[in-house]
Amino acid sequence: MDRFVQLAGVAGDVSRETFSRLERFEAEFKRWAERINLSAPSTLPDLWSRHILDSAQLMPMSNGAKTWLDLGSGGGFPGAIVAILLRDRLGASISLVESNKKKGAFLQTTLNSLGAPAKVFMVRIEDAPGKVAQPDIVTARALAPLPLLLELAEPWLINGARALFHKGRDYAAELDKCHDAWRFDLVEHRSVIDDESVILDISRLERR
Questions:
Q1: Which architecture does CATH list for 3-207?
Q2: pTM higher than 0.90 for the full model?
Q3: Which one of 57, 100, 126, 178 has the minimum C-beta count within 10 Å?
């Protein structure tokens, strides 16, 4: 299938310019990955669908949200992809928190070159509250088990942000481990990229 058609089917209405920027990001990712460890080498041939489209599927779930926060951004999934897709959304922005300086430099350099409305904070997630403005949406992908993820995101979620967390096949067990400590509203979105994965849409978080 044509890549642009693939992207539009996953992310919704996107421009050809946005598509071009995503392809440029893909090329830069592969170039930097030759020098620093951005992802497992085995995932590079399937970068477009496995990482870029998987990240882009968050956009239709966002209800037009303008302010985002991505925790543990790593090589930029989903944060960098969201940043590029937000470029066409007037007044939108995303903060990316990544403590690894080499990965942070890649994100900052590449997203700046693409004109994406992103700011990279090269700090530990635990040190980010107070530095990062309150967002509408918090994202994280392949970062931590859900109980720890909720603790990391708590400073923003208890103040009204929604979480959109990518999770794999064991997500139900992770949810079970949260119920003694947390209360929240949950919507499970089945991934359109991977049949065994979901996006957990969490709101109204509070401690029990």
A1: 3-Layer(aba) Sandwich (3.40)
A2: yes
A3: 126
